[in-house]
Design brief:
The structure holds two protein chains of two kinds. Chain A has eight helices and ten strands. By secondary structure, chain A is α/β, with parallel strands linked by helices. The two termini of chain A are 26 Å apart. By secondary structure, chain B is mainly α. In chain B, helix 7 runs antiparallel to helix 9. The chains are: A alpha/beta, B mainly alpha.
Chain lengths: 246, 295
């Protein structure tokens, strides 16, 4: 496997899972997103990395359609889903009904059961959310996002609240799910190791724009431990302005 | 390169004496010896649950009445109240009076709850609904039920209409206020989440807003039932020729304290029944809620 290719610009001409052009977002006088450009290819997993408050979640909310930009243009597929940082399950609905919330049609239950099995929760469909552990609840919210077969999945620090062991399991799960569900994904995180573990491409945000872009073409084993991994990690920390502290 | 090395601070640990105070040991509950005396003590502490206190009061009352501390015209013993209730029933007075009172309460509640729920749902879901109802109901809320009564008599006469309207007024206002607050109080993040899953307005209302507002609705129902009994009392004591209130007024006029108490006991039983009814609803409808269990 080759190492990493560092490019300054996203690759144009690819069929886009999402396209963000010259987007501006302000909160009062503060410009959070400053003419930001971003293209996500079909079936590509892009990780957006940056410190707290750099505008990662703001960008994700624009892509989700939860907020509108103050300038520029956002183009996303109509079929998209979001996994939030908190599970946001409806406490008054059992697991199955939480997953089928946005589903219609006679086979909704069967599809929900299939996806629940995929995330490793077969047989838990009758549980109340209060009976789930943090990892299980986040898996349900992952199932809820995937059940509608979206073309774009937005993940807003989905594993940040989980413990380290559960987080690693969730990374495996995301990799497994990608082979079945052909969706573009944008994962927002501040965890460098999580970014390396999952990404096709890692974008580092700075000053309201995409600072640098790293294409990651490593095998699963190389992502865990290799010289290339350490080089990438060092480069990412450098981009984040943490070069001397690792 | 790494010249910003962090030197670990040297901590000098003084030879502290091992602290033995303030320690707690937790063992499984079963590990504690469960003697027969222990279980008996627990059984005896609250043998009748929530009814323990009322029963104790009743027994004390009975004892005091029999001992002659309480005068018969003042507060007759519980057993003699029961006896008067049986007498009144056998005379054919209590049955019809109770029936007419329950009918009034039922019709009043039905009207009040219907109006309260419809207005509450519209006010909670729609901005225009809020503007339409909220001001009026907030004004109604501060008007005491008893103060409206004379006006209602002037407007609607002394017939059934006034009584039913007074009860529905008492039931409708708290239902609206609680339902409105409950719908507006549903977690905004859950609504946002539901929108992103592609759930339409109908799904949003039926699966997020209505179940989310259910705890508040049940609080409203509790108040509505209690206030409707209050309205019943107010309506019946002022002008009636039948019903429980009439029974009480008549008892008062002829100094039949027992008869007054029969009416009061029935009112209080209605309140108790209403509370139990809402409790059962809560147990069934709010199973999902991780609730606080007092020990």
């Amino acid at each position: 496997m080759s190492g990493t290719v560092v490019t300054r610009e996203t690759r144009p001409g690819q069929q886009a899972g999402a396209a963000v052009e010259q987007v501006v977002r302000r909160f009062g006088d503060r410009v959070v997103l400053d003419h930001l450009e971003l293209t996500i290819g079909a079936e590509e997993l892009v990780v957006l990395l940056g410190p707290s408050g750099c505008g990662k979640s703001t960008l994700l909310r624009l892509l989700a359609g939860l907020d509108r930009p103050d300038g520029g243009r956002v183009e996303v597929p109509a079929k998209r889903a979001i996994v939030f940082q908190a599970d946001r399950l409806l406490p008054w609905q059992r697991v199955l009904r939480n997953v089928t919330l946005g589903l219609h049609g006679p086979d909704a239950d069967r599809r929900a059961l299939d996806v629940l099995a995929e995330v490793g929760l077969a047989g838990r469909e009758k549980a109340w959310p209060k009976e789930l552990s943090g990892g299980e609840a986040q898996r349900v919210s992952l199932a809820r996002a995937l059940v509608s077969e979206p073309e774009l999945v937005l993940l807003d620090e989905p594993f940040a609240a989980l413990d380290a062991i559960t987080r690693l399991r969730m990374h495996d799960l995301v990799r497994a799910l990608r082979s079945k569900h052909h969706a573009a994904m944008l994962l927002v995180t501040h965890d460098v190791d999580e970014a390396i573990a999952l990404a096709d491409r890692i974008l580092v945000m700075s000053n309201g724009r995409i600072g640098t872009s790293h294409r990651v073409e490593l095998s699963a084993a190389d992502r865990e431990a290799s010289v290339a991994r350490e080089e990438l990690r060092a480069a990412l920390l450098n981009d984040l302005g943490l070069a001397n502290q690792h | 390169m790494t010249d910003i090395g962090l030197k670990s601070p040297v901590v000098v640990r003084a030879a502290e004496p091992p602290r033995t105070t303030g320690r707690e040991v937790f063992l499984p509950r079963d590990a504690r010896r469960r003697t027969a005396l222990h279980t008996l003590g627990r059984r005896l502490r609250w043998p009748l649950g929530v009814y323990t206190t009322p029963v104790v009061v009743l027994i004390a009352w009975e004892v005091l009445a029999r001992a002659g501390v309480l005068k018969k015209t003042y507060a007759p013993a519980p057993t003699s109240i029961v006896r008067s209730a049986v007498d009144l029933w056998q005379q054919g007075v209590l049955g019809p009076d109770l029936a007419i009172s329950l009918q009034r309460a039922g019709i009043g509640l039905a009207i009040g709850l219907t109006v309260g729920i419809v207005a509450g749902v519209l006010g909670g879901l729609l901005r225009s609904g809020e503007y339409l109802f909220n001001g009026v109901v907030q004004i109604f809320n501060t008007i005491p039920l008893l103060a409206v009564l004379p006006l209602m008599i002037v407007w609607f006469g002394i017939d059934e209409l006034t009584k039913v309207l007074l009860i529905s007024f008492g039931a409708g206002v708290p239902m609206y206020l609680n339902l409105f607050a409950a719908i507006r109080g549903v977690d905004q993040r859950l609504i946002e989440m539901a929108r992103t899953t592609g759930a339409g307005d109908w799904r949003l209302v039926t699966r997020v807003l209505v179940p989310g507002a259910l705890p508040g609705f049940l609080v409203g129902l509790r108040f509505s039932l209690a206030y409707s009994v209050l309205g019943l009392v107010a309506a019946e004591t002022v002008n009636a020729d039948k019903g429980l209130g009439f029974l009480i007024t008549q008892g008062q006029t002829y100094l039949q304290t027992g008869q007054v108490f029969v009416g009061l006991v029935i009112y209080s039983l209605l309140g108790l029944l209403a509370d139990q009814f809402v409790r059962v609803l809560e147990r069934v409808l709010l199973r999902w809620r991780p609730s606080y269990e007092a020990s």
